[in-house]
Each structure stands twice: as structure tokens, then as C-alpha cells.
Amino acid sequence: MAYAVSSCEVGFAHFTTANWMLLLNRGLKMSIMARVLFSGFFTAIAIALPLAALADPSSDRIQSANRQRLIETNRCQGCNLQNTDLNGLKLIGADLNKANLQGANLRSVDLRGANLQGANLTYTDLSYADLRLANFGQANLTGANLSNAYLLEASFRQSILQEANLTDSYADGNVDVFTSVRQFVDLEGANLLRANLTNAKLGFANLEGANLSEVNLVDAYLENASLINTNLTKVKLCNTTLQDGSVNDQNCR
Fold it and tell me: Fewer CB within 10 Å, N- or C-terminus of the chain?
């Protein structure tokens, strides 16, 4: 006996097949999206983990230990003091040879006679610091703030002071009338490209072979300074007292 298939059953069979294909297609798309989302999730985890490692407090503990070591022994050769707060400390004669002081706060620190030869002082705050007799030979002070710092008899030989701020710094030298000994800041061979020396007092300074290209010397005082082989390309002069005592106003307008 033949079985008659109704139009309703045919329609139902057609409907379920079409919808099955649609559901399968949607399921495939959702699977792909899920994979993308999971992939993005694990990628974010992979990125976050190294960042968390960089923020590892162990680095802060090392710097804190180095800070304490410096305070107790007045020595921290080659150690990491990056971004460390040393504000106002007395570090007279401290040995910080080749130390990493990048971004550190050395505002108002007493570093008289300290050894910072070859140290990394990029973007360090040395404003109002007493740096008399300190040795910064071959140190990197790029972008450092030395505004209002006391620099007399400090040595910056072959150091990098590119774009450093020496506004209102004091290093006005002199000659002892009894011994004829000169007191001055030593900047021989230093690179001061685009540094700001506005109102800096640099009488008797040794600037031989230094690079003062594009330096701001507005209101600066350079009487009796030694400028042999000094690069003065594009320096800004306005009310600037030169080595012969004359005042130059060529860039005032």
C-alpha cells in the first residue's frame, strides 16, 4: 500500500533542512568569532604578563636598598638609583662613579666634592644642588635640570649637557689675589647643544672646545671665560656679557 506524503510534511522537511543549514552556518561563524575572542584574550594576557614583570616591586626594593647603602656608606658605584628620591640629602664626597641616576630627584642635594664621573644623569633634577668641586667628567646630563645649582670648581669635562637647563646657575669664578689661583667651572669639551644658560654666571669658566651651538645665553655672564675653539654657532645673545667684558645684544629684537 502506497504511503501518500502530504504537502504539509514536504514543507516541514524543506523548512527544517533550510534552517539546519542556516543554523550550521551561524554556528560556524560563532565558532570563528569565539576563536578570535579567545585569541585576543590570550594575546592580552601575554602582553600584560611582561608589563606586570616590569612593574615588579623587586626593582623598587633594589633601588631602595641602594639608596640606604648610599646614605650609610656614602658610596654606590655603578648602582641603580633610577628615579630615586634623594631630595635634600648631604652626600659630600660621595662616590657615585658610573651610577644610574636617570630621572632621580637630587634637588637641593649637597654633592660637594662628589665623584659622578661617567654617571647617567639624564633628566635628573639637580636644581638648587651644591655641586662645588664635584666631578661630572664624561657624565650624561642630557635634559638635566641644573637651574640655580652652585657649580664653582665643578668639572664637566667631556660631559653631555645637551638641552640641559642651567638657568640662574652660579659658577662665577675668580683669581685669588694672593696665590693667583683661578677658581672656575670646567666645561672643556662638553656638549651643551641647545642648553639653556639664561642668567648663568660663568665668569672665568673653561669652555675650551665645548659645543655651545644653539645655546641660550640671554643675560649670561662670561667675563674672562676661555672660549678657545668653542662652537658658538647660532647662540642666542641678549644682554650677554662676553669674555672681554662687553655686552652683546644682537638677538634681543
Answer: N
| Longest CA span, the chain | 138
Q: Which CATH superfamily is domain 76-253 in?
A: E3 ubiquitin-protein ligase SopA (2.160.20.80)
> Residue 132's closest CA among 185, 195, 174?
185
The whole-chain average pLDDT of the chain stands at 85
In the chain, where are the structural domains located? 8-50, 76-253
Q: Higher pLDDT residue, 48 or 91?
A: 91
pLDDT, mean of residues 87-102: 98
**pLDDT tens digits for range 215-238:** 999 999 999 999 999 999 999 999
